[in-house]
Amino acid sequence: MGLASFKLRYGRTLVSFGPGSVESLASWLSRFKRVYVVAGRSAARVSGALDDVEKYLRASGVEYEVFSGVFPNPTASLVDSVAELIWRYGAEAVVAVGGGSTIDVAKIASVVVSCGGRARDYLSRSRDVCDALPLAAVNLTHGTGSEVDRYAVATIEETHEKVSIASEYIYPSLGIDDPRYLVTLPRVQTVYTSLDAFYHAIESSTSKASSPFTRSLAEEVVRLISRWLPVAVSNPADLEARYWLLYASLLAGIAVDNSRTHMIHALEHVLSGLEPRLAHGAGLAALGPSAIEFLYREVPEVLHRLLRYLDPSLRPDPEDSGKAAAAVRRFQAEVEFSESLLDYGFTADRVDEVVSITFKSLGYLLSLAPLEVGEDLVRRIYLNSLRRY
């Protein structure tokens, strides 16, 4: 049986999934005369996705311009620059070609163009989001789920606050998940983005907003990642591995869209806001095992359902919390993740700064955790994550 291509509708987004799914762009583009393309600095070209997008733009007779300068952990000022380019060009719609950072920049810029103001107005929640410009998201990683969700994240430089917008108005109208574009994804990004999806599953299943639906999605996400991530690491060109990791990421994006994330993501946003070199998935993986030990103690039945795919001997018992954390560390080591927060300049003497920003900017996420998250818990997770195992 081949790798099936299919379409599904979620929220305001039509997702076109599978090999050749980029063809769906042709009918979407037929509604517009001028389109702006937002891309990252290299992956869009290296993967071949941007060449294909431009082919469909030319075939549709659509006028377009391309910005290829989105960087990881994007800033509010970058979003504002992109929004000005889109506005000056007079674009009727936007096509994002890239991973979560690129899609998030395109989402927020589309809001700024349509609704006015500046990116920080929406990130700080001082201005309401209205209908954004239509957006097609050609996704190039198997991690964020941004091609199917209502979230977008950027950092306000002055305060180092990495915060999100959540609005029904920023669902992409078209999300494209074509695994052919992911075979060129570097090994390190393969690991980072897959672990991002893994932690989406962990947190969406344990959130106070979780449900049987999101817990079922989360279980499938962990099952697929545990099966296929080692394959993709050892053989990056394996299209079947890319297909199932991309599918896991899609499911994780839908799970998070319903149940949100909580303390691991909150703390990671603080760290990568302070140090933009820290990739989102790397930050989650550095923090995750320590946080999972506390989470497993609180909701062992929920996490046992997921983590038994990493260690079948786990029991749904709080006493196995340390064993659960060890299983996650062991899996991350198996896929060649061995980084610590120390690698990014974080030290024990920064703990007060980290705790302060966490509670100042991201308390709304902490409140969704299944246990009470106080300053002492955040300190312990951060300090434990400085260790090398």
What is this structure's SSE topology?
Elements (H helix, E strand, L loop, with lengths): L5 E5 L2 E5 L7 H5 L4 E7 L2 H4 L2 H12 L2 E8 L5 H14 L3 E6 L1 H16 L3 H5 L11 E5 L11 E6 L4 E6 L7 E4 L9 H20 L5 H23 L4 H21 L3 H12 L5 H19 L1 H8 L13 H14 L16 H11 L1 H4 L8 H10 L5
Parallel strand pairs: 2-9, 3-4, 3-5, 5-6, 6-9
Antiparallel strand pairs: 1-2, 7-8
What's the CATH topology name of the largest domain?
A: Dehydroquinate synthase-like, alpha domain
Which CATH architecture of the largest domain is right?
A: Up-down Bundle
Computed structural class: alpha/beta
Strand content: 5-15%
Please describe the biggest sheet, giving its number of strands, its sense, and whether it closes into a barrel.
Answer: 7 strands, mixed
Summarize the amount of helix as a percent range: 40-55%
Radius of gyration: 20 Å
Number of helices: 16
CATH C-level label of the largest domain: Mainly Alpha
Which labels suit this protein?
about 50% helix; Dehydroquinate synthase-like, alpha domain; about 400 residues; globular; alpha/beta; two-stranded antiparallel ribbon; Rossmann fold; seven-stranded mixed beta sheet; about 15% strand; single chain; 2 domains
Fold and architecture overview:
It is a single chain. This protein has helices at residues 25-29, 43-46, 49-60, 76-89, 100-115, 119-123, 187-206, 212-234, 239-259, 263-274, 280-298, 300-307, 321-334, 351-361, 363-366, 375-384, and strands at 6-10, 13-17, 34-40, 63-70, 93-98, 135-139, 151-156, 161-166, 174-177. It is α/β, with parallel strands linked by helices. The chain folds into two domains: 6-181, Rossmann fold (3-Layer(aba) Sandwich); 186-384, Dehydroquinate synthase-like, alpha domain, CATH 1.20.1090. The protein has a seven-stranded mixed beta sheet with strand order 1-2-9-6-5-3-4, with helices on both faces. It has a two-stranded antiparallel sheet with strand order 7-8. A hairpin with a 4-residue loop joins strand 7 (151-156) and strand 8. Helix 7 runs antiparallel to helix 8. The protein is globular and about 65 Å long. The model has no long low-confidence stretch (mean pLDDT 96).
